[in-house]
Specification:
Layout: H1 2-16, H2 18-26, E1 35-37, E2 45-50, E3 53-56, H3 64-67, H4 72-76, H5 78-84, E4 92-96, H6 102-111, E5 116-121, H7 124-136, E6 142-146, E7 159-165, H8 174-184, E8 185-197, E9 210-211, H9 213-220, E10 227-233, E11 239-246
Parallel strand pairs: 4-5, 4-7, 5-6, 7-8, 8-9
Antiparallel strand pairs: 1-2, 2-3, 8-11, 10-11
The structure holds S-adenosylmethionine.
Length: about 250
């Protein structure tokens, strides 16, 4: 029953973002040969494929109640997730696709006043929702950045850790985003893909919103990103956390 409700909510959220995805389909600057289009595809995807994977619709800001649902703690093990990032005071962490800030807010305290969280999103409504919480809770160490579909607009060599929680699979331009994210990492800095496990049919999430560990590695380990695999942390009920590190030259 609960699973059916989860599916129903996710479906309505995805339908709400359909117009946005249709715009993405028409984009003229989509001439990177790494991407292909297929007329027959999953109705939850945008019909654009990257290294064999169909890209999912972007979750619209109408999905905020789903991101903030109380049962998310249990379903996604948020406390364990944040512990697994191994945050330390003073760290600079970029939360790409931060949404309404569920994960950003949990991380802000842990990096302390000398550290900061850079919360990046392409939807102004998401950043506005997060900003209201920052003001209410008087949190000062979070910077908000409006990214684009191709760039998170981060400074080169400036970030200790990048996290993407339930986000990467919906990047319209994953190749361009990864090039830019990797450049923004300090040498030895880490990037973490938190993705619903494709390997586990019991995870009640639509297929285009899931990724296997193998697929994450296939996409992240292209030589131009200069990333190396560090570890996969498998302690969450629905997602795996796949960490890579920027190579030190
Ligand atoms: C499913 S929500 C996850 C939000 C948040 N990470 C969380 O777990 O609560 C995905 C978010 O990624 C954002 N997003 C999608 N593509 C993006 C991109 N290229 N750059 C930055 N944010 C992006 C969407 O706008 C949306 O807010």
């Amino acid at each position: 029953m609960k699973t059916t409700i989860t599916f129903a909510i996710l479906s309505s959220v995805l339908v709400a973002s359909l117009a946005q995805a249709e715009d993405a389909k028409k984009s003229k600057d989509d001439d990177n040969p790494r991407y292909t289009r297929r007329a027959i595809h999953d109705r939850n995807g945008i019909g654009k494929f990257y290294l064999g994977r169909e890209i999912a619709h972007v979750m619209g800001y109408q999905g905020i109640p789903w991101l903030e649902r109380p049962e998310r703690e249990k379903e996604e093990g948020l406390k364990k997730m944040v512990e697994s990032f191994k945050l330390k005071p003073g760290m600079v962490v970029a939360d790409i696709g931060a949404g309404s800030g569920v994960i950003t807010l949990r991380m802000a305290k842990q990096v302390g006043a000398k550290g900061k969280i850079i919360a990046v999103d392409v939807q102004q409504q998401m950043l506005d929702a997060l900003n209201r919480k920052l003001k209410r809770q008087e949190i000062k160490n979070v910077e908000l950045v409006k990214g684009t579909q191709k760039s998170p607009k981060l400074k080169p060599n400036s970030v200790d850790l990048i996290i993407m929680v339930d986000v990467y699979h919906e990047f319209e331009f994953p190749y361009e985003m990864t090039i830019e994210m990797a450049k923004s990492l300090k040498p030895g800095g880490r990037i973490c893909f938190v993705e619903y496990r494709m390997e586990d049919p019991a995870v009640p999430i639509k297929l285009v919103h899931k990724m296997s560990e193998k697929q994450v590695k296939k996409e992240a380990l292209q030589k131009e990103f200069h990333l190396k695999f560090k570890e996969t942390v498998d302690v969450l009920p629905w997602q795996h956390m796949v960490f890579f590190e920027r190579k030190k030259f």
